[in-house]
């Protein structure tokens, strides 16, 4: 038994040493050859034998060999299970814990009993968002936390500010998105710093398009999905 334990411990030690050697070689070679890879966040073995995952800038994924002689940018697909491993990894890295969202920088729209929760990042100049908002009217018993996210057009910030500074934010938002009625100009004294914080938050979590939906279980859905799909995700998040 002691011999088996000693053998196992030696095998683990060798594996650790080999991993450290691979890590060092990859960092050295890529750092020298590609300057932007001087700050690698993490190096791990991928599901494919001989292939290593490199993570940079928080959530960017690349792949390389054990010496950093080759670099691959793209998706790693598990053909047996029909899974996009790269996409799954990025989704995990960019997941947003719903309870950590700064809800003070959003306004809420409550329908029915409001028991179900949904957060949405939207730009008032987003045509897809308008379509989404009109369809969202069909979804009941939900509390929607609306994060104004002005990233699309030159006047997105101004329109967002007018809505954020309105006396009734939910009404001003729905008047514009559903009924095409613009909000009144904001008072110069209105504090709209929440908008800048929202943009910074979105950049942190790689939110590059609107609408982007975040459900209570942390699942994230980009794009204007219809009411039936929203219902599906709300049900799954509740389970």
Compose a concise summary of this entry:
With 239 residues, this protein is of the alpha+beta class. The protein has helices at 2-33, 85-93, 127-136, 156-164, 169-179, 193-204, 227-238; strands spanning 42-45, 52-56, 60-64, 71-72, 77-78, 83-84, 107-111, 116-122, 142-148, 212-215, 220-222. The two termini are 46 Å apart.
N-to-C SSE string, H for helix and E for strand: HEEEEEEHEEHEHHHEEH
Q: Strands of the biggest beta sheet: in what spatial order? A: 7-9-8-10-11
Uncertain stretches = 6-19
The tally of strands reads 11
Tell me the CATH architecture of the largest domain: 3-Layer(aba) Sandwich
Structural class, by secondary structure, is: alpha+beta
CATH homology-level superfamily of the largest domain? Glutaredoxin
- Shape descriptor reads elongated
Gyration radius, in Å: 23 Å
What is the total number of structural domains?
2
State mean pLDDT (0 to 100 scale).
Answer: 90
- The total of helices stands at 7
Largest sheet: 5 strands, mixed
